[in-house]
Write a structure and sequence with these properties.
Elements: H1 6-15, H2 20-27, H3 31-40, H4 48-59, H5 61-64, H6 70-83, E1 84-90, E2 96-104, H7 107-117, E3 121-124, E4 135-139, H8 142-152, H9 160-175, H10 183-196
Helix pairs in contact: 2-3, 8-9, 9-10
């Protein structure tokens, strides 16, 4: 392996978002060599939060390339309005999960929405007593939820406000991922939960 050029390192590390380990593996050298070259060329190392964001982005790259036709946007919006939810949940770690989901007892319908959305996953709720089995479709990555909702929000009716709040919440959380929830983020979470409470008008 010859010396690593600054342009090559900028392309792999900054533009493509590869980690030092990924670059080292690609170029056949050690991670330490990559670290030294970053310092030599004055390329700022990513913070831990930035590294995590880069990792998450690579995982959902295909989902973020999905763009819907006007008809698909209308159908997805109708499904979320009638059978779905735009919500937020707080985890034990103190972090939050913003998600969009839809539940129905007809798996064929849930599978259809998954196919139409071209993203997310399908799961099955545990059978309890005489209740019918329920199947759900969901997306929960900040990037993916934001991308999905921005496309269908103009066509939502019942869940439009929750979608607008969730888009803003995703935007803030992506920007401040490593930081505690801000006052605005807490307020957004509370408002989304309030709108989703049974008996509250949307």
């Amino acid at each position: 392996m010859g010396d690593i050029l600054a342009e090559e390192l900028e392309n792999l590390y900054l533009k493509k978002g590869l980690s030092c380990a990924e670059i080292a593996n690609r170029l056949g050298c050690s991670k330490r060599t990559i670290w030294l070259r970053l310092s030599k060329y004055g390329i700022s190392r990513r913070t831990r939060a930035e590294g995590l964001m880069s990792f998450f982005l690579k995982r959902v790259k295909n989902d973020l390339e999905v763009n819907y036709s006007e008809e698909e946007k209308k159908l997805l919006a109708l499904a979320i309005d009638l059978e779905g939810a735009v919500s937020v949940a707080k985890r034990r770690t103190g972090r939050i999960t913003v998600y969009v989901n839809m539940w129905n007892t007809k798996k064929v319908l849930v599978d259809y929405i998954r196919g139409l959305a071209k993203m997310g996953y399908v799961s099955r709720a545990k059978h309890q007593g005489n209740a019918n089995e329920a199947y759900g479709w969901a997306i929960s990555s900040l990037f993916v939820v934001q991308h999905f909702l921005k496309q269908i929000a103009p066509y939502l009716l019942a869940k439009k406000k929750q979608a607008e709040l969730a888009i803003r919440l995703c935007e803030l959380r992506i920007k401040n991922y490593s930081k505690p929830l801000s006052a605005e983020e807490i307020q957004l979470c509370q408002e989304i939960q309030r709108l989703n409470r049974r008996g509250k008008a949307n």
